[in-house]
Amino acid sequence: MYPRTASDHRLQRPVPSFPAPRLQVYPQQDLARFLRQEHERLDHVGWVDRARGIAHIPIDDAMRQVAHDGIPDWPAR
């Protein structure tokens, strides 16, 4: 709160556990899985909704396509 004041921010060892249910038992593995899934979606082609014909493409490809073709119905300057 006040500049130049010292305070002790050390963590308690061991870190206290919380009562059940534990909502995230393996946070490191959860984060690794999440990042793998995000990279898979961002770097590869795949369906968002196949029945409606909606797909996703890599960001670089999408940016290249917009730079080349423009955006339909975008107001001209």
Task: Please characterize this protein's 3D structure.
- The chain has 77 residues and is α+β, with helices and mostly antiparallel strands.
- It has a domain at 45-71.
- It is built from two helices and two strands, in the order αββα.
- The protein has a two-stranded antiparallel sheet.
- It is elongated.
- It starts with 26 loop residues before the first helix and ends in an 8-residue tail after the last helix.
List the main descriptive attributes of the protein structure presented here.
single chain, 77 residues, alpha+beta, two-stranded antiparallel ribbon, 2 helices, elongated
How is this fold's topology laid out?
Elements: H1 27-43, E1 46-49, E2 54-56, H2 59-69
Placed side by side, the strands forming the largest sheet appear as: 1-2
Indicate the percent of residues in helices: 25-40%
Q: How would you state the average pLDDT, rounded?
A: 86
The helix count comes to: 2
How many runs of DSSP E, i.e. beta strands?
A: 2
Largest sheet: 2 strands, antiparallel
Helix-strand makeup class: alpha+beta
Shape summary:
elongated
H-E order? HEEH
Rg, nearest Å: 23 Å
Estimate what percentage of residues fall within beta strands.
Answer: 5-15%
First-to-last CA distance:
50 Å
Which stretches are poorly predicted, pLDDT < 50 over at least 5 residues? none
Give a brief description.
The chain has two helices and two strands.
